[in-house]
Design a protein that fits this description.
alpha+beta, six-stranded antiparallel beta barrel, 6 helices, globular
Length: 171
């Protein structure tokens, strides 16, 4: 099997692990292992654990994500689209979450407008090979191709989350 054939097989496998936009049992096991590694600070800095409060359970939900850097900013991309649980949870939590890579960082995730997503999506595909089968755009494609899919792929800018002052007043 040639290089293209093995890449197609791997992409089919990746799509199978996330059929119907949800991880299957194998993907959940692999994600748990990746969460442990990223939380401990192992692996590349772009691999993080996102911790967000579950919108139904109120419990902390943890999953691994790749941080895309673009023009000095950091972004999280929902490769499975707007119905991914973490996207719904982040929206329900008002964007408040924690990123972990060896240390905890309180963040606020701000959704990026559709018109500004394309260059971030291209950068994300350059950094996250596991996302390529889900977005179905060649990572070397012109920006117009990324603009075509941008409305279906939520992107969040990572900002520091400033806690409220001790007296509870907002500044």
């Amino acid at each position: 099997m040639g290089r293209d054939g093995s890449a197609r097989l791997l992409h089919r496998f990746d799509r199978w692990m996330y059929r119907r936009g949800r991880p299957n049992r194998l993907a959940r096991v692999m994600n748990r292992q990746t969460v442990l590694a990223a939380s401990a600070g192992l692996g590349p800095r772009r691999l993080v654990t996102l911790e967000v409060t579950g919108r139904r359970t109120g419990r902390r939900v943890s999953l691994p994500l790749v941080v895309a850097d673009h023009e000095g900013e950091r972004y999280l991309v929902a490769m499975l689209g707007p119905d991914a649980n973490w996207v719904r949870n982040v929206r329900a939590a008002g964007g408040h979450a924690v990123l972990r890579h060896g240390r905890r960082e309180a963040v606020r995730l701000e959704e990026v407008g559709v018109g500004d997503r394309a260059p971030v999506l291209r950068r994300y595909l350059a950094l996250a090979p596991g996302a390529r089968p889900h977005l179905r755009v060649d990572r070397h494609a012109p920006l117009e191709e990324f603009e075509r899919i941008a409305e279906h792929v939520p992107v969040f800018r990572v900002l520091p989350d400033r806690p409220l002052p001790q007296d509870g007043s907002r500044t």
